[in-house]
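hey can u check if this looks right to u? its 272 residues, i copy pasted from the old doc so theres a chance i mangled smth
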Amino acid sequence: MKELHVDEVVIALPTHQNKAIQECIEVCDQYSTQTRILPDFEQYTSSNLQVNNIGLLSVINIRELPLDKEVNRLGKRAFDIAFSILFFILIASWLFPILVLIIKLSSKGPVFFKQERWGLNNEKITCYKFRTMVAESQDIDSDGNYQQASKDDPRITTIGAFLRRTNLDELPQFWNVLIGNMSVVGPRPHPTPLNLASMHTIDNYMLRHVVKPGISGWAQVNGYRGETKLPGTMQKRVNFDLYYIHRWTFWFDCQIILQTLINMIRGDQNAY
């Protein structure tokens, strides 16, 4: 589907083929593809239904989201650009040199860390952070499993622990916001190995990617950040992300930004 650059799928199956309809929806969800169904059935799994027309045909839009509207997307993008420019002028201009110097003097290795993560519509993006671990530390263990940062992780430097606890390590991602592959607020982008491990085990996991990822999100300000060893923890994070996606407003973003600032001052016990 990705190779064919499919933007939208219309499902036109008879009512008794409910299983086939659901399978089509799940495949479209995996690729963050808009899905519509001709209303010739009685039961289906959905949320935020909207009835639209394509020509003379009435179709049911499986998922009508606030950010599907162009005016909302443009407004959110304008806010992202303005916010990130102000950040670089008013804060990064003096804070970044200090953090760069501290990181450089405290441990060997590059100041910045970059990692492949997944963004809007599952597109791979390069996510930037201040380095918080010893140089050349490994993300994959001897068994081939992805190693999330954990409490008392020996890979994390002393300065890195402080940066993580205060969320200062995430500040370079304002560059991602400025160039347009992230937003100030949205579901946190996960590394590729974590996405691959979760996409088939966590319900509706891939629906996180129907909007741009963010520097902070509704899940994070509610305590669901950091390590997610248990499937239940990841599921709760995804549920918070989906709540945000379905109920996005400009003021909701402002609320999350304010709560993020409060958490930065207090320090986050799940940030390690």
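Residues 8-61 form one domain.
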